[in-house]
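Need residues for this backbone.
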């Protein structure tokens, strides 16, 4: 059986959930025992697993698969994780971040994450969850559906 993980990460990768915010989120109707939280000091990467299809430049749309792996390796430090996710796109030479590239399916970087292991059978209003997270944290959130 394949596993799906519905992930919510802040649009701003450096945002870190507080214990108070986590406690408040746990009181929401959609937050069951299959929901878990992380609030880390270092920046991590939430991937789409086997859903990952492509990555492209946010400015010109050029495919960056050939370049992306090396850029990820340069941004990662074995002791500190992802320390600098700033990049200059190789296609149009513009400044961006690895987080702001166009991923199909969505992926991104985070210090905080809200995850739900799901079978996709149960209908969930992901936009409502993002709205709840935004209301509690005053941060915008990105949805990532990971398949393993």
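Answer:
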């Amino acid at each position: 059986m394949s596993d799906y993980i519905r992930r919510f990460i802040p649009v701003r990768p450096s945002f870190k959930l507080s214990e108070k915010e986590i406690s408040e989120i746990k009181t929401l109707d959609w937050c069951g025992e299959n929901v878990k939280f992380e609030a880390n000091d270092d920046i991590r990467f939430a991937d789409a697993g086997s859903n990952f299809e492509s990555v492209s430049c946010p400015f010109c749309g050029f495919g960056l698969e050939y370049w992306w792996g090396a850029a990820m390796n340069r941004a990662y430090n074995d002791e500190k994780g992802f320390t600098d996710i700033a990049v200059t796109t190789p296609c149009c030479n513009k400044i961006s971040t690895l987080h702001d590239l166009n991923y199909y399916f969505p992926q991104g970087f985070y210090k905080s994450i809200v995850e739900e292991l799901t079978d996709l059978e149960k209908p969930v209003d992901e936009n409502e969850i993002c709205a709840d997270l935004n209301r509690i944290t005053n941060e915008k959130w990105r949805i990532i559906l990971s398949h393993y």
